[in-house]
Amino acid sequence: MSDIINLTLSALIDKIKKKELSAQEITNAYIARAEKSKNLNTYITTDFENAIEKAKKFDEKGNFEYKLPGVPLAVKDLFCTNNLKTTAGSKILSNFIPSYESTVTQHLWDEGAILLGKLNCDEFAMGSSNETSFFGNVESPVGKKVVPGGSSGGSASALAAKLTPATIGTDTGGSIRQPASFTGTVGLKPTYGSCSRYGIVAFASSLDQAGPMTQDVSDAAIMLDVISKYDTKDSTSVNFKRGDYFKSLSSNIKGKKIGIPKEYRVDGMPKEIESLWQDGITLLKNLGAKIIDISLPHTNYALPAYYIVAPAEASSNLARYDGVKYGYRSTGENLISMYENTRSEGFGDEVKRRIMIGTYVLSSGYYDAYYLKAQKIRRLIKNDFDEAYKSVDAILTPSTPSSAFKIGDKTDDPVSMYLNDIFTVPVNLSGLPAISIPAGKDKNNYPLGLQLIGKAFEEQNLLNISYSMEKELSFKNNLQDWWIK
Amino acid sequence: MSKNKEYLIKRGNSEYEVIIGLEVHAQVLSKSKLFSDSPTNFGAEPNTQVSLVDAAFPGMLPVINEFCIKQAVKTGIGLNAAINKRSIFDRKNYFYADLPQGYQISQYKDPIVGEGSILLDLPDGEKKVGIERLHLEQDAGKSIHDIDPQNTLVDLNRSGVALMEIVSKPDLRSPEEVNLYIKKLRSIMRYLGTCDGNMQEGSLRADVNVSIRKTGDKNLGTRCEIKNVNSIKFMQMAIEYEANRQADILEEGGSIDQETRLFDTKKNETRSMRSKEDAHDYRYFPDPDLLPLELTDDFISKIKKEIPELPDEKKKRFVEKFKLTPYEANILVSDIETSKYFEDVIKNSDIKLATNWITGELFALLNDRNLEISQSPISSKNLSSLINLIKDGTISGKIAKTVFEIMANESKDPKSIIDEKGLKQQSDPNKIEKIVDDVIKENPKNVELFKSGKDKLFGFFVGQVMKKTDGKANPKLVNDILKKKLN
Question: Which of A81, A85, A99, A235 should we substitute to test contact with B (largest number of B Cβ atoms within 10 Å)?
Fold first, then answer.
């Protein structure tokens, strides 16, 4: 059994196709491990009985040509799943059972995958440590009382702890890449418009993007093949020619031009991050890539712009949670007091903070000074990248300015928490694809990640560069299973 | 406009001019909603025309209904307006139980249609009323407060239905102009098939902005907005009340507060709903779920080709080609079905007679029975034959009215009615001469009187002849023969 959970997604698929393993064996192995890993608090909702049933069905008459034949997967609880509770980590949706399926998860099931359950996340994906979830914080398998990052913290923790062979998260400002970096896993945020947002609980519509979180780059390519599809139900979905990502993987990156942005050398960046980045540069050189120093001059304004745009959209997106139609409803003497009580009791502090910020920056008299200016900055940041991509194929940066921290360390200081996203938010603001791959460890033996940022719709290029680096890095988490009971 | 017809509010020595602007909400004629594929049928069971998108379930996304965009562009072209090739959908944020998203998707700074105009036909000429803009937006649902004593019920059937908000410039000056404006706007949209204009079903309603100023003043006064008025009559009453209320305040030395008011149709008065200070901060911002709407020249020119002849052009054609008076033409073109009926009738019959019969007898009949022309019991074909029977002398105009009445009740063609009832006109001069001779013979005294100068008795003789022929004698022949015999 321990063999099964140690397999990568691609190896699992291989064994299923060769009928060396059945879907039931695999599903049971992951369920058994999940049962023993409850204290990581990765799951909000499990669907194990159905999963076993589906695995059985797959073994009886499954299609082995599928891309994910009989593979059990747990997904972030931001994806609406038909007939299975979907909470977005919030009290206000704690009793919400959708009658529909998100496009992205539907693609998984259409390729033969089996849903194990729904993974914990920051409330409405607002957080960088999975500490804002109504369902409690998630522990990272990399260390006791260590945060897995966020907002896809449950996904990252479950993946690193081998409770699911792969998973999907959503990334609005780094919510896939930062937890991947914190847990020694691979996280890919595709180009905005690659994966449909239909059926994903919205945080900030112009930034939200679903993407794979996997054990290695090949697995990310397999998952991207499945979930990146044009969808007419999402008006921001883009109908571009998608690659055959897994099949086209290549480790030949000779002559690739990699940009190193000087603005990412931020004050107070730990030495170990500095040297991680330097080692990455050296590695790329050795692999035959050309290193080019570049400038992304408006980088400093990305974080403030992000923390205006994202809350503004969120304040409007979350208006629908009013207790009238579905979800949690409090009582009140009249409509207004019912609203006030429902939303006061239903939302957590971080969500309320962002709703208030967002409401403020959109208010009459402040709109131009905040929202409009942030949108202009967003354009400038995008222009920076466009300019850089005239001379480079991809950009290498650290994924995060620090490694994983302890639970509770930053909860009293929202700004220091927000600073976690400093290297990831410019990517969302520009709609570009980026991947975080594990590249080293800090003094506590916590993983550290490097981020590669690509040109829009050129995920293949990103995958190839990280694939070639991964081979040389041969990163291992070497977790001691300390949480298993 | 001549001075004496101006609509002015008089207070002592002061005269106030009334300035009116309308924001008309016209429901787009479309099978499905603006951002979802739910149906838009009126009068359906509550909450049966609602999709997950309309009810704002988590993760649901709006997708623009291209047909509604076409309808808006079509309407814009019909209003002689600029079509904006790039427009933006914004979110208008506010909380209400029948607004599931917590915001209405509307257009704020960049509407789909810009400035245009509408021509009004006033008794003494035309008046051009400016259109400020036309934008698309979602309708909200309906809160129902009077079914359940404890709770408010919500019906989301209308939630997400496409509306065109058509904003006029403050160019209207009287309740009558408002009446003509709404009717003209409705007529244009019906011609285009972009809005059915049905005010009873709420397909057309308006916010009315009213201000007054002393005659001769150049600056506009402070306006009040009267929300959501759903009939022309109520609009007129509301304006009348509001203008007088404002005049009373100004006359007493007060000033008008800019505010939103409601028209109470039972008490026939407007009353304050909220002041400017209490106005919502809607926090408009571009909807990030929707990309800016970009229209190609090709898209617009294709729609231009679909634009039918509109009332103004049709009126011009009717006047020039059919020699109608502008007044007659106006009546016939204001409703597209009427104009079609008219043109069907005159395909094979006399224009002058057709105009008179349609605007006279037919309109009276339809009015009487409260019917649309499309429901007319007399088909255009049958009316056309009736007119031809008058024209060729088969029946007199008087008999025609009898035949028309029978047609109205039996929907038969006039020829068979005439045959059945023997109503054919007596046009044989020999037979009529014989009857005239009889009448002269039977009334020697009156013949004497007539010959001695009592000309008025001529009518008596005509009547006698008609009586003897049951009204079927050709009146022209009767006249001619009588004149010959009596003189």
Answer: A235
Asked if residue B411 and residue B451 are part of one domain, the reply reads no
- Give a yes or no: residue B316 inside a domain: no
In tens, the pLDDT along B321-369 reads 999 999 999 999 999 999 999 999 999 999 999 999 999 999 999 999 9
B203 and B73 share one domain: yes
Shared domain check, B215 and B278:
yes
Is the ipTM here above 0.95?
Answer: yes
Contact B59 A199 (CB under 8 A): yes
Shortest Cα–Cα distance, A373 to chain B (Å): 13
Question: In this structure, is residue B206 part of a structural domain?
Answer: yes
Domain of residue B143 covers 3-304
Domain total of chain B: 3
Shared domain check, B149 and B278? yes
Distances (CA, A) of A411 to A170, A171, A347, B48, B371: 22, 21, 16, 46, 72
B175 phi, psi to nearest 5 deg: -55, -35
Looking at chain A from residue 309 to 338, which residues have their Cβ under 8 Å from any Cβ of chain B? 312-313, 315-316, 318-320, 322, 324-326, 335-336
Structural domain includes residue B312: no
In chain A, the residue whose alpha carbon lies closest to the alpha carbon of B284 is A362
Please report whether residue B31 resides in a domain.
yes
Are B163 and B293 in a shared domain? yes
Whether residue B295 is found in the same domain as residue B434: no
* 3-state DSSP assignment of residue A358: helix
Q: Is A316 close to B283, i.e. CB distance below 8 A?
A: yes
| Look-up of token digits 């309109």 | B363
| Shared domain check, B470 and B357 | no
Cα dist from A405 to A65, A140, A143, A147, B322, whole Å: 43, 10, 10, 6, 88
- Are B296 and B152 found together in one domain? yes
pTM of the model: 0.92
Rounded CA separation A453/A469 (Å): 14
Residue B279 touches partner A, C-beta closer than 8 Å? no
pLDDT digits (tens, 9 = 90+) for A356-398: 999 999 999 999 999 999 999 999 999 999 999 999 999 999 9
Which of these is catalytic: A37, A151, A194, A196? A151
Which pLDDT band, with edges at 50, 70 and 90, does B2 fall under?
A: very low
Which chain A residue has the Cα nearest residue B104?
Answer: A316
The alpha carbon of residue B291 and the mean position of all alpha carbons in its chain are separated, in whole angstroms, by 37
